[in-house]
Amino acid sequence: MYHQYRAGWLEVISGCMFAGKTEELIRRINVLSYAKMNIIVFKPKIDNRYSDTEIVSHSGAKVPCLVVDRAQEILKKVNIDTEVVAIDEVQFFDKDIVDVCEYLADKGIRVIVAGLDKDFRGEPFGIMPELLTRAEFITKLTAVCTKCGAPATRTQRLVNGKPASFNDSIVLVGAVEHYEPRCRHCHEVVDKPNKF
Ligand SMILES: [Zn+2]
């Protein structure tokens, strides 16, 4: 016999760009919507790629969302009826997002977040290591390496067609930038310091 269990946990969907993280987040949101669960979807203000009031996958799937500046604003939007909190592009939030996710999960909310686990240099992205450690469930998605076809786990940044430097800033004014999925062996980072 099953006993009634307490809801509330943290799920992380991570991986490189073009791995379908937002697609998977939207799929989970839709499944829970069919079950009539009370869901609020968030994304950080920094992301204006496609839409201001929706999260949109590369394949065009979309769901409405609230755009917030800071992690703590999420707590103000959540109410007593909220059962699920979904967050896209979670890697762009300030470090308070970790405590926010933990607080909500402790309160019985199913928290589902999607985000890049590594930056273009292949280094851990901001608060992602902490979220991945604290999560009950982790889904690590891969893309396909544009060079060799292997499972891609990294995001290659190209500036004016050439691999970006380890020292390049995140925003380069006036440069033509392009990102593509690469495997460990095909991922190129110019000027990356050698440890050994
Ligand atoms: Zn490759």
From TrEMBL:
One Gene Ontology cellular component annotation held by this UniProt entry: cytosol
Name of a matching Pfam family: TK
EC number(s) reported in the record: 2.7.1.21
Gene3D superfamilies for the chain: 3.30.60.20, P-loop containing nucleotide triphosphate hydrolases (3.40.50.300)
Swiss-Prot/TrEMBL keywords: ATP-binding, Cytoplasm, DNA synthesis, Kinase, Metal-binding, Nucleotide-binding, Transferase, Zinc
InterPro entries given in the database record: P-loop_NTPase, Thymidine_kinase, Thymidine_kinase_CS
GO-annotated molecular function: ATP binding; thymidine kinase activity; zinc ion binding
Coiled coil: none
Keyword Nucleus: no
Binding site for substrate: 171-174, 179
Superkingdom of this protein's organism: Bacteria
Positions of ATP binding: 15-22, 88-91
Reactions catalysed according to its record: thymidine + ATP = dTMP + ADP + H(+)
HAMAP family listed in its UniProt record: Thymidine_kinase (MF_00124)
UniProt xrefs under NCBIfam families: PRK04296.1-1
Homology family: Belongs to the thymidine kinase family.
PANTHER family attached to this UniProt entry: THYMIDINE KINASE, THYMIDINE KINASE, CYTOSOLIC
Protein name as catalogued: Thymidine kinase
The organism of origin for this protein: Thomasclavelia cocleata
Phylogenetic lineage: Bacteria, Bacillati, Bacillota, Erysipelotrichia, Erysipelotrichales
